Amino acid sequence: MHMNYLIENHIVFNPEDNSLSLPGDSENQIAVSNPARRILLLLIEQQGIVVEREIFFKKVWEDYGLTASNNNLNHCISKLRKAMVTLGYPDEFIVTVPKVGFTIRKEIIIEPYFTHDLSPEPVHNREFKTAPEVGLTEAMPEGETSVPAALPLTVKKESDKPKKKLRHDLMISLLVTTALTLSAFLILYYEVRDPKTELKVAKIGVCDLYSTVPVIVSRKLEFIQLAESFLHKNNIKCKPGNIFIFQSERFTSPVNTGSVRDFMAQCITDDNHKANICISYYTNDRTTHDQ
């Protein structure tokens, strides 16, 4: 599972495959380059704040060993604007602040948009097509590379299992993952607003730790230890103003699926303690093996 961004309930930005598309129409994507993707992510993270050109130069090009220039930056901004217009967004999305930088207006609604794919099609049976860059046919400046809309997935070959058991495992995985995702959404938009909610478990550093379901007192210590272990393994740092939303399948699933699925969302909150931007992490560690 990974998190995309839904812009004005109209356009989906998928950072993992460098694309912009309409909701429910992932086949017709507009591909953007790696620098353009990093620019859009930076603007979303700093929404309402003017990002200076020097910051773009460092975080988009220099940190990746590329040469930065005003020409490259302007070209990427132009491509992003044209992509938004092509997808039907009529207003100015990225605002130019003369002699300073760029920003996305604070009133534009940008929300987390979670997706998951439980049963990817084998690579050798899938056709990958580069999404057409409608109306974006300018020459690519130095330092930018075109990125296909879909990237091949590396799928580990497993031993054949009976079809009946495979269907059973897939159904269980779908139910569990859907429940975790739905619970996380409810936390993001309702429960997290109230710091006294019963879903708040503890603090890790200066960050509040929430569960997606109530945790009984006798298991709180175990829950906290699992969350801390997850943060350590994934090198996730607590920063002021952040909250963590964590859940493990062992707390929510009444059956043993042969795997332990853990979900963590790291969210930035505003002055009203409402989650604005979230980064999600998801692991699926198999603990048993079929004979």
How would you sum up this structure, described in words?
This protein has 291 residues and is α+β, with helices and mostly antiparallel strands. It contains six helices and 13 strands. A five-stranded antiparallel sheet has the order 4-3-2-1-8, with no helix packed on it. Strands 9-10-11-12-13 form a five-stranded mixed sheet, sandwiched between helices. The longest helix has 27 residues, at 163-189. The relative contact order is 0.13.
List the keywords.
alpha+beta
List the helices and strands and how they pair.
Layout: E1 2-7, E2 11-14, E3 19-22, E4 25-31, H1 34-45, E5 51-52, H2 53-61, H3 70-86, E6 94-97, E7 101-104, E8 110-115, H4 163-189, E9 200-204, E10 207-211, H5 220-233, E11 242-248, H6 249-252, E12 259-269, E13 275-286
Parallel strand pairs: 10-11
Antiparallel strand pairs: 1-2, 1-8, 2-3, 3-4, 5-7, 6-7, 9-10, 11-12, 12-13
Uncertain stretches: 117-161, 190-196, 287-291
The strand order across the widest sheet is: 4-3-2-1-8
Overall geometry comes to globular
CA-based gyration radius: 21 Å
Overall structural class, as computed from helix and strand content, comes to: alpha+beta
In N-to-C order, the SSE pattern is: EEEEHEHHEEEHEEHEHEE
N/C terminus separation = 28 Å
Q: How large a portion of the residues is in β-strands, by DSSP E?
A: 25-35%
Kindly state the number of beta strands: 13
Largest sheet: 5 strands, antiparallel
Count of alpha and pi helical runs: 6
